[in-house]
Specification:
626 residues; Thrombin, subunit H; 3 domains; eleven-stranded mixed β-sheet; eight-stranded antiparallel β-sheet; 7 helices; 40 strands; elongated
């Protein structure tokens, strides 16, 4: 393959393959209606979206070729109605539908106009595996109202748990189902799928990049047409204010031959996606995902793209803001590429010879020709790149970024590739006429005129603490679907599952928090005439209630005592005359509210047992799963 050949970009376009097992959205626990109440639904009677033919159509596409797996929509866009498919209302607070896909087929679900109110929950249950995803709640609400969920295996049931007037008035709509293309042009993607010649970042070859590697992220780019992999780097700026600028490649948002409409607010940035040692890990490592970005600048001549992450980067990401060198005609004596080939864990490639500035115009597979001197030309001595490596930072021997990977010659076996081309940061520095097409305005906001800057550690050194616990009845039975909230310097809401447990991790030891619990559903759960008799005997001093939790449960009126008013309200619920307690919730907890600070947690983890009791139920007959 000569230098005159057409070069390929290293973007990897995919409908995520089955190897990716981490969900795109944070889940907040809880139990769906179908599991919680052990109701066996005949799924064939649900309104169902059948997608078998759409999947077959993708497999028969003749234009899906090579290492590109084109991300194409597998359902039409919604028509005029708010819902592109109908859910079945089985109660005034439950709506369910089914999405039918081939067994083992992996897909993602995109929702638009997503703005769930307080207390509403959304679950996805895989029919094939029985795995429950969710709850997705108002904690997933975003300004743009777009949400991507998955991956899911095979067919799944979508359940909305929240009050609604009709299925046409739900606070979300299905926009798209994304799926992998099948056999045509397909390759395995993600964890453990890069070539054997790739070198893990925590091998000896990457020993000098402990900090800089923490600034390299895998990017999952969502668009109307599909989803794609690239690599990017957090970049420091002269204000050193930890603004999360990410440098990547222009062709990541403008892929070869694809009509691609990026949805930056849905882009996912995966931090610390790497193994702990040189050996490949036995299972996919845990990593931290941050969603959302806005485009700041791009320049096709140098294949430069700069975006800013819009969501806060958590302390647990251990982020590092990489330094850079924009010196003109800079030719370091050695260079290193950090990247995520094929969407795999972080790798490193090395070139021990002085870099060359490419003096020839270069044709690329999207029909563009990059001009002379716009790129560095590398010849790697150890390892190489692969689709998905696009945008990976090229470092000099001082661990400063000097460019980002564009691509190189096409090959059937990427381990044989030695030549790569990376857009030069010095050419992107003043590349255009405004801040929209150059780096200087963003990376030198103080206008200091510097052309070199070292990297910067984030404020990740403060101690992290974990707050967890379990919610149980006085008899020690776990209570599910309890809303557990943490407000203050950090905001969280979690729903307990069948085990009654909740956990809030990565809390700042410097933070202050208010902890509270709530469960206000199924007010009639556990209320029977026997409760009325027991409370009556207590009021008449015939048989006093035996413990404090019975007395607290009997006081449904909330006036601090057990009286005939409580009997009236309990009786009205049993007879169906009222569906709530006017001055109380369905369940109460001890403690119900707790104020604390991170410094109150003397160790890195604290566990709290919370007692919950069903109001009006004094004989403990309520089902804590409901």
């Amino acid at each position: 393959m000569t230098d005159k050949s057409i070069l390929i970009s290293t973007l990897l376009l995919v409908f995520f393959s089955v190897v990716i097992a981490v969900n795109a959205q944070r889940e907040f626990g809880g139990v769906p209606f179908t599991t919680e109440r052990d109701i066996e639904l005949n799924l064939q009677e649900l309104n169902t979206l059948f997608l078998y033919d759409n999947v077959r159509a993708l497999k028969n596409r003749s234009d899906l070729y090579g290492t590109y797996i084109h991300a194409l929509p597998i359902i039409d866009k919604p028509r005029k109605s708010k819902q592109s498919f109908n859910l079945t209302s089985i109660a005034n607070d439950i709506a369910i539908s089914k999405i039918e896909l081939p067994k083992g087929y992996l897909s993602y679900l995109r929702l638009d106009d997503y703005q769930l109110p307080k207390g509403a929950k959304l679950f996805v249950t895989e029919v094939e595996t029985g795995k429950v995803h969710g709850a997705y709640t108002r904690g997933n609400n975003r300004d743009a109202g777009r949400l991507i969920l998955g991956p899911f295996v095979g067919s799944y049931v979508l359940e909305y748990n929240g009050l609604h007037e009709s299925v046409e008035q739900l606070p979300f709509r299905l926009n798209q189902v994304y799926g992998h293309t099948g056999d045509v042009g397909a390759m395995e993607l993600g964890y453990g799928t890069s070539f054997d010649c790739m070198i893990n970042i925590n091998c000896e070859e990457g020993r000098d990049y402990g900090e800089a590697a923490n600034g390299v992220v895998r990017i999952r780019m969502v668009a109307d047409e599909g989803i794609a992999f690239c690599t990017g780097s957090l970049m420091n700026n002269t204000a050193e204010d930890q603004t999360p600028y990410v440098l990547s490649a222009y062709h990541c948002e403008n892929p070869a031959g694809i009509d691609f409409n990026p949805l930056y607010d849905m882009w996912l940035f995966d931090f610390i996606y790497e193994g702990n040692s040189c050996a490949n890990p036995n299972q996919e490592p845990q990593f931290v995902t941050v969603q959302g970005a806005e485009k700041l600048a791009d320049w096709e001549d140098t294949d430069m793209l700069l975006v800013r992450i819009t969501d806060p980067v958590p302390i647990s990401a251990n982020a590092y803001f990489n330094g850079w060198d924009a010196t003109d005609d800079y030719l370091p004596r050695e260079s290193h590429l950090l990247h995520h080939p094929n969407g795999d864990i972080k790798k490193i490639a090395q070139d021990f010879d002085s870099l060359r500035i490419d003096i020839d115009p270069r044709p690329w597979d999207n029909g563009t020709v990059t001009p002379s001197r716009s790129h560095y030309r590398s010849e790697f001595d150890n390892s190489t790149y692969q689709p998905g490596s696009s945008g990976g930072p090229l470092f000099d021997n001082n661990q400063r970024v000097i460019g980002q990977l564009h691509g190189g010659p096409r090959s059937d076996e990427f381990c044989t590739i030695a030549i790569a081309y990376s857009g030069r940061l010095s050419e992107s520095w003043n590349s255009g006429d405004s801040s929209a097409d150059r780096l200087k305005d963003w990376l030198d906001p103080l206008d200091l005129g510097v052309i070199q800057l070292d990297g910067l550690n984030s404020d990740a050194q403060e101690q992290l603490v974990e707050f967890k616990g379990r919610v149980v009845t006085p008899d020690g039975i776990s209570i599910s679907n309890v809303s557990v909230s943490l407000a203050g310097d950090q905001q969280f809401e979690f729903y307990t599952g069948d085990d009654g447990r909740f956990v809030f991790d990565n809390l700042s030891s410097k933070g202050t928090f208010t902890f509270s619990l709530d469960k206000d559903i199924n007010v009639g759960n556990g209320l029977t005439s026997l409760d009325v008799i027991i409370i009556t005997n207590h009021i008449l001093d015939k048989v006093p209630l035996s413990n404090i939790f019975q007395e607290l449960a009997a006081d449904v009126s909330g006036d601090g005592r057990v009286s005939s008013l409580d009997l009236v309200q309990i009786t009205n619920v049993i007879l169906g005359r009222q569906s709530t307690f006017p001055n109380n919730t369905s369940w109460r907890f001890e403690p119900e509210v707790l104020q604390m600070s991170g410094s109150d947690i003397s160790t890195s983890s604290v566990e709290l047992v919370v007692i919950g009791f069903k109001m009006g139920d004094v004989n403990n007959s309520a089902d804590p799963r409901r």
